[in-house]
Amino acid sequence: MPIRLLLVTPIFSLILAVAGCSWAPTWGVYKIDINQGNYVTQDLVEKLHEGQTKSQVRLLLGTPLVADAFHRDRWDYVYRFESSGRVRDEHRLTLLFADDKLVKWNNDTLPVSPIRGYAGENKDGVVRSVAADEGGFWGTIRGWFGW
């Protein structure tokens, strides 16, 4: 009987340890892909020039995601893509206006338009994000389980 107890105890402990892990419940749970914000590409930013009116910028880039009531002369175009619960792609473009004319803009690295040869385009024509966090070997293992 004590030998049987010695065999059952580690197995039972392992089952409790796996059940207590925070990642165990995510096995098999589907998390949808979430696109939020304005997808602004580098070729659109190249069309901006100082002196454009707010309506011209809105026509070119669309309505900004963040138009702060306290900073009426600042527009923020933010894009965020989450897949499987993890942030895969994130871009920000900030425009500054003075007297309803574009004065200055700041942006992080923006993707190139798919029309001009997007770097994440495969031979099958499917566009994939270059900024996706691959994570090496462990990222591949986590991807199998959807973590």
Q: Major sheet, described briefly?
A: 5 strands, antiparallel
**From the helix content, strand content and strand pairing, which structural class follows?**
alpha+beta
Query: What is the helix tally?
Result: 4
- Report the top-level CATH class of one domain: Alpha Beta
Shape: elongated
How much helical structure, as a percent, in the residues? 25-40%
SSE succession = HEHHEEEEH
Looking at the structure, the CATH topology of one domain is: Beta-lactamase Inhibitory Protein, Chain:B, domain 1
Radius of gyration: 24 Å
Written overview of the protein:
The protein is an alpha+beta fold. It has a domain at 29-108: 2-Layer Sandwich (Beta-lactamase Inhibitory Protein, Chain:B, domain 1), CATH 3.30.1450. It has 4 helices and 5 strands; from the N terminus they run αβααββββα. It has helices at residues 2-20, 42-46, 54-61, 136-145; strands at residues 34-37, 66-67, 74-83, 86-98, 101-107. Strands 1, 2, 3, 4 and 5 form a 5-stranded antiparallel sheet that branches. The radius of gyration is 24 Å and the shape is elongated. The two termini are 40 Å apart. 7% of the residues are buried.
Q: Top keywords for this entry?
A:
alpha+beta; Beta-lactamase Inhibitory Protein, Chain:B, domain 1; five-stranded antiparallel β-sheet; 4 helices; elongated
Secondary-structure map:
Elements: H1 2-20, E1 34-37, H2 42-46, H3 54-61, E2 66-67, E3 74-83, E4 86-98, E5 101-107, H4 136-145
Antiparallel strand pairs: 1-3, 2-3, 3-4, 4-5
Brief sketch in words of this structure:
The chain is an alpha+beta fold and 147 residues long.
